[in-house]
Specification:
Blueprint lengths: L1 H17 L49 E5 L18 H5 L4 E5 L5 E12 L2 E14 L4 E5 L6 H9 L6 E9 L11 E4 L11 H12 L4 H14 L21 H13 L5 E4 L8 H16 L3 E6 L4 H4 L4 E6 L2 E7 H10 L10 H9 L2 H9 L3 E2 L2 E2 L7 H13 L2 H14 L14 H18 L1 H21 L10 H18 L4 H14 L7 H31 L5 H29 L2 H17 L13 E2 L2 E2 H4 L1 H14 L3 E4 L3 E4 H6 L10 H25 L2 H20 L1
Parallel strand pairs: 5-9, 5-10, 7-8, 8-9, 14-15
Antiparallel strand pairs: 1-2, 3-4, 3-6, 10-11, 12-13, 16-17
Family: Belongs to the ABC transporter superfamily. ABCG family. Eye pigment precursor importer (TC 3.A.1.204) subfamily.
Membrane topology: Multi-pass membrane protein
Main location: membrane
């Protein structure tokens, strides 16, 4: 039965396509297919039970002030849309008004002209990912960039927003209100495809901390911004719920998580909002609800530009304009209804009972050629699959040629000329909080997050205590005789090594911190120095609590020297050792951004540092190449163990027989290299502290100059370039 349905659908598609192979033929009419006629109202492409709504034909006319547009209205239907209710004027309002309604617009006009994006291939810029794209987006409208995978949708969106990655080079012009200028801080928002949220905060807390990082002003104003964003994205029912949930509450659904990501960018009240795949991983109901919310947001005057791979019929009816891409080529730009007419004129009308977006992708997605090739030899009871024989390469060339010779292309060129001939108001940069304020906010947010993360701190603290109890009970009651020196050295080495190794358990939390930073930094919510200082300050109380609890247990179970100053140094040594270790973990976390490779790398590095720390073989006896220089000097285990042994044995002596005694340094020398100076332990502590600072300086360099992003972007761009060449 399934094979029969596929065959029947293929025959239907072929017959529908072949019946209108020439532009003179008209597409079939019916309840599932609609072509716009002059003076007709816009309606959704939907099935019979789809809602109806009023619509307005917007004729943007930029005045000298540049802040308003004229909205030319047509006769409205007496019924309001179930979907778009409240976003447009009601019929009663239209009846009492003239045919021209002036409304103040908070958005901005975006125009891109002859836009090309090339990817760096080896030493020269050659292949174009985006090829001479033209288009515009007006205040109060939804403009969608649609196309198959790897067609250049996200690249075009980033190019318009001025957020291209390093290996890409931009040619062409982007106008903002008729000006050739980039958009400044606070004038636009950009929402990435993936939602990066803090799971341990509620929706309101998450937005409030984002407001503190973005907006300068009084607390009452910032709280008002948060409530406005919650209201705009219809998040009132979820404002007090934890984003990640807990044992008694589920995490936020995907649709609401997407709304939170968009609400974070609405806090600045941007004039232009860019969204990469707003319906990413959403079901049909959540997708429709989110698009209706965005439609209502656009009705306030905000300019919305977003990418989309595919949409349902109801969602497609909400778009105002569509930019259709395939392999970087613009196959159409204009109103969504005119796009169907364009496909019909090119000989590819939309079959009945098929979503327009599905039809567009079927015609221009070259991946279908592989499916056709796979199905040529497959047989079923009624024949083969070779009837699905639309050549997408021919379709793409036909659609591109038809568009460039059409009236729609001329209308776009004329509109671009009209929108760029006069300069409108310049979008000014909004004020932002000081770096000191951001450090305070990030520190407090990190403290709150860590305290709520059960896996990050509390379980790790329990594991540290259990590990210390295990080591302490194994080496308990070893005494203070000369024969106990080697056992005591072993206990201290095992304690330092395993405590450092166990800190890898906090790796997932560090990865989340890095991911949040890499998401907030492009939107200028944070900076490399601000992030590192805030993370450093937030980690101090938790690392100190781990150090003091573990050190006290170990110190008294082993029975080390009972002096307060020696105990204080022991705690400080372990604390600074963990501080240096955390800096190393942050560097590895940023390098990989994945748990498994980070764990492998850290375990391997810790094992190497244990080997060269001077316990298994005294450091002076290590092979000089590689093992002694430089590995033994890079291992913080070396300085921590050496400092603790100097703290325990310098100033002590052991009796050998009745008349002879040896110093503690001489007693340890056979097992470990330590110095006889009383200041040696403080020198080792200083080296540990400098290593902790050096690791964070290295992390700052990596974050500040986007070294990983540049490498990743270059690698992904080369992959995209190779895939396009294969096509």
């Amino acid at each position: 039965m399934v094979m029969e349905e596929i065959q029947s659908y293929s025959d239907n598609y072929r017959s529908s396509s072949s019946s209108t192979s020439s532009p003179t033929n008209k597409p079939p009419s019916g309840p599932f297919f609609y072509l716009r006629k002059p003076g007709a109202l816009r309606k959704p492409f939907s099935f019979e039970d789809s809602p109806e709504w009023d619509d307005l034909d917007i004729d943007p006319n930029i005045e000298e002030g540049g802040d308003s547009i004229h909205v030319a209205t047509t006769t409205a239907s007496p019924s309001l849309s179930k979907v778009n209710s409240g976003s447009l004027p009601s019929p009663s309002m239209l009846e009492g008004s003239s045919s021209i309604v002036s409304r103040k617009i908070a958005g901005a006009t975006i125009v891109w002209k002859d836009l090309c994006v090339t990817i760096k291939d080896k030493r020269m810029y050659s292949d174009k990912v985006i090829k001479s794209s033209n288009g515009y987006s007006l205040p109060g409208t939804l403009t969608v960039i649609m196309g198959p995978a790897r067609s250049g949708k996200s690249t075009l969106l980033r190019a318009i927003a001025g957020r291209l990655h390093c290996p890409a080079r931009l040619y062409g012009e982007v106008f903002v209100n008729g000006l050739k200028s980039s958009m400044h801080y606070g004038s636009y928002g950009y929402v990435d495809r993936k939602d990066v949220l803090i799971e341990s905060l509620t929706v309101r807390e998450f937005l409030y901390y984002s407001t503190l990082l973005q907006v300068a002003g009084s607390l009452s104003q910032k709280k008002a911004f948060v409530e406005d964003a919650i209201s705009a994205m219809s998040l009132g029912d979820y404002a007090g719920k934890l984003i990640g949930g807990h044992c008694l509450m589920n995490r936020l659904p995907c649709g609401e998580r997407r709304r939170v990501s968009i609400a974070r960018e609405l806090i600045m009240r941007p004039r232009v909002l860019f969204i990469d795949e707003p319906l990413y991983h959403l079901d049909s109901v959540s997708a429709l609800l989110l698009m209706v919310t965005l439609k209502k947001l656009a009705s306030t005057g905000c300019t919305l530009i977003f990418t989309m791979y595919q949409s349902s019929t109801e969602v497609f009816g909400l778009f105002d304009r569509i930019c259709l891409l395939s392999n970087g080529n613009t196959l159409f730009f204009g109103e969504t209804l005119a796009c169907l007419q364009h496909f019909s004129n090119a000989g590819f009308p939309c079959p009945i009972m098929q979503s327009p977006s599905d039809h567009f992708l079927r015609a221009i997605n070259t991946d279908f050629d592989r499916i056709i090739a796979m199905c040529k030899n497959l047989q079923d009871d009624h024949g083969d699959f070779s009837s699905v024989n639309m050549d997408t390469a021919v379709a793409i060339r036909t659609l591109e040629a038809t568009y460039k010779s059409s009236a729609d292309y001329s209308a776009v060129e004329s509109m671009i000329l009209k929108l760029t001939e006069k300069e409108g108001p310049h979008l000014k940069s909004k004020g932002r909080p000081s770096d000191v304020m951001r450090i305070v906010v990030l520190t407090w947010r990190s403290l709150l997050t860590i305290s709520r993360e059960l896996n990050h701190f509390w379980i790790c603290l329990v594991l540290y205590v259990l590990l210390t109890l295990s080591i302490g009970t194994i080496f308990i009651n070893i005494g203070h005789s000369l024969s106990s020196v080697m056992v005591r050295v072993s206990a201290i080495f095992v304690f330092v090594s395993f405590i450092s190794l166990l800190s890898i358990a906090g790796l997932p939390a560090h990865l989340e911190e890095i991911k949040i930073f890499t998401h907030e930094e492009p939107n200028q919510h944070s900076g490399a120095m601000v992030f590192i200082l805030a993370h450093f300050l937030a980690s101090i109380p938790f690392l100190f609590l781990i150090s003091i609890s573990s050190s006290l247990l170990f110190y008294y179970l082993i029975g080390l020297r009972n002096e307060f100053s020696l105990l204080t140094y022991f705690i400080l040594n372990i604390f600074v050792c963990l501080l240096a270790n955390e800096g190393l973990i942050m560097i590895i976390s940023y390098t990989w951004l994945k748990v498994f490779p980070c764990c492998l790398t850290l375990v391997f590095m810790h094992v190497l540092m244990m080997l060269v720390a001077g316990y298994f073989r005294v450091r002076n006896d290590l092979p000089e190449a590689i093992w002694k220089y430089p590995l033994s000097y890079f291992a913080f285990h070396t300085y921590s163990v050496q400092g603790l042994l100097e703290n325990e044995y310098i100033g002590t002596s052991f009796a050998v027989g009745e008349v002879r005694a040896i110093s503690g340094e001489q007693a340890v020398r056979g097992s470990y290299n330590i110095s006889s100076s009383r200041n040696a332990k403080w020198n080792n502590l200083l080296v540990l502290f400098l290593m902790a600072i050096a690791y964070r300086i290295l992390l700052f360099v990596l974050l500040r100059f986007h070294i990983r992003k540049s490498f990743t972007s270059y690698r992904s761009s080369c992959w995209l370039l190779t895939s396009n060449k294969g096509r």
